Amino acid sequence: MKQFLFFSLLFLTTITNAQTNLIKNGGFESELINWRGEEIASISPYDKKFGQKSALINQFVGAEWKALDQIVSLPKNTYAVEFSVWIKTESIEDQKEAYKAGAMIAEFTDGSEKKITSENIAQVKGTTAWTNYKKTIKVPADAKKIRIMLALAQTNGSIYFDDVKAITISEEEYLKQNPIAVSTESPKSDSGLKTFSNGNFENNLSSWNGSGLISTTDKKEGNAASEITSKTAEWKSIDQIADINANDKTIEISGWLKAKDIQQGKDSWNNGMLIIEFKKDNNQKASEDQVIAAVTGTTDWTSFQKSFTIPQGALQYRIMIALSNCTGTLLADNIEVKLSK
After folding, report:
1. In contact, 299 and 259? CB cutoff 8 Å
2. Which residues are within 8 A (CB) of 19 and not within 5 positions of it... i.e. 6 or more apart?
3. Please, which residues have CB within 8 angstroms of residue 3's CB and are 6 or more apart in sequence?
4. Which pTM value belongs to this model?
């Protein structure tokens, strides 16, 4: 009987830990206890999403950085964290830079609270009704703590925050939300040639070879982006092969990449990369591989566009999205290919 009770309690503890909200006083029912920056924020008992109160930051002139923040420890072996918040805004000014907005930011740090990477959970301008913002993020290697920032980031206006959460997510639950997709054959044109497709990843990894993740929480546009993650410095990639028409002379590739804590490998080219390979056949290259775009460290979504002259004798091209013997996470979205005569 005692053994049964022990394992029952262990099971319940495991479930509880997997759904723990790391944020203390995220509903502001205890005023601004557990939050830093109480001198720049106030409590609103009149306009709230849940309960009796919400947090309010006002700024009418100056467009300075004003924020509440809270630092919490990450439970050991946490795989991912689901961040969420309810936000209402009034007349937040539209500045030139996109980051100057009402915002919730999650910053992962090491044990000494040195920044590893940060993510925007919400970025809001103008006047909006109460809106829920949610984003699930994999925990970077070496992260020990999270700093949550609720801010008017160098702009003017009013912003309300309520029901702030950071829920720990198991690897199993994360993979349910972001399934590993299996690739299928690329479509063919009327001429029977394989054409490049699904560069926006709305059909998971259809048309792409290799195994990777589909991110539904961090994407540039639409509902999905591709994600490649590695904790060891090795080659990891997905790729797609398409045919070249006989009269095509140039090829233009464009799209978006985002880096999360990509640590450059031994050589300078060991980064997150988008690469093109021209092929004469399945076994012979028409030229050396060429880099379309590369990212390292931590970046926001970054656009790229590059054109190439198609080498003589090339019948196919291969687009590769890769972590080239480095660690971290590489996201890609809205990749487009244009062939020209």
Report:
1. yes
2. 167, 168
3. none
4. 0.56
Q: 73-125 pLDDT, tens per residue?
A: 999 989 999 999 999 999 999 888 878 899 999 999 999 999 988 888 888 88
Kind and range of the H or E element at 16?
helix 2-18
User: Do 263 and 235 touch, CB atoms closer than 8 A?
Assistant: no
Across the chain, which distance is largest between two alpha carbons, in Å? 79
Residue ranges of the chain with per-residue pLDDT less than 70: 1-19, 177-192, 282
CA distances from 293 to 13, 157, 255, 272, 298 (A): 46, 38, 9, 8, 15
CATH class of the domain comprising 15-172: mainly beta
Point out which residues pair with 340 in neighbouring strands: 250
What CATH number is given for 178-340 in this structure?
Answer: 2.60.120.260
Same topology, domains 15-172 and 178-340? Answer is yes
Cα 180 vs. chain centroid, distance in angstroms? 16
- Tell me if 101 sits within 8 A of 125, measured CB to CB: yes
